[in-house]
Amino acid sequence: MAAEIEVCPVEELPPGEVKIVHAGEFSLGVYNLGGEFYAIEDRCSHDDGPLAEGDFDVEEGYAVCPRHGAHIDIRTGRPLTLPAVEPVETFPVRVEDGIVKVRVA
Predict the structure, then answer these.
(1) Which one of 4, 6, 67, 93 has the fewest CB atoms closer than 10 angstroms to its CB?
(2) Where are the domains of the chain?
């Protein structure tokens, strides 16, 4: 059964920003790319280190792992550069009544 978590009001996550959210035993990075919201697992698939703490390219839509520099597509979770070769999990995001929400399994 899927659960949904409230992240924050839309105005607290402006374009070009990321918010790290803890959901049970794992963390997510919720990104605002030009007004579109995306959520990915806050874990680089290369070595399980944190991902959302690093920089991200708003124009190209990828997160940069702060440990080894792998680029992960924020929209799909796919790795774009080495050393990451496995995708990270993505989560559906929606806005309801001005609140950003993420559906987690």
Answers:
(1) 6
(2) 3-104
What amino acid occupies position 49?
A: G
Question: What string of H, E and C letters represents the secondary structure of 18-75?
Answer: EEEEEECCEEEEEEEECCEEEEEECCCCCCCCCCCCCCEECCCCEEECCCCCCEEECC
Domain 3-104 indexed as CATH 2.60.40.3930: no
Strand order in the sheet with 62-64: 56-57, 62-64, 71-73
- The predicted-structure confidence for 39-58, as pLDDT tens digits, reads as follows 999 999 988 889 999 999 99
Other CB atoms within 10 Å distance of the CB of residue 41: 20
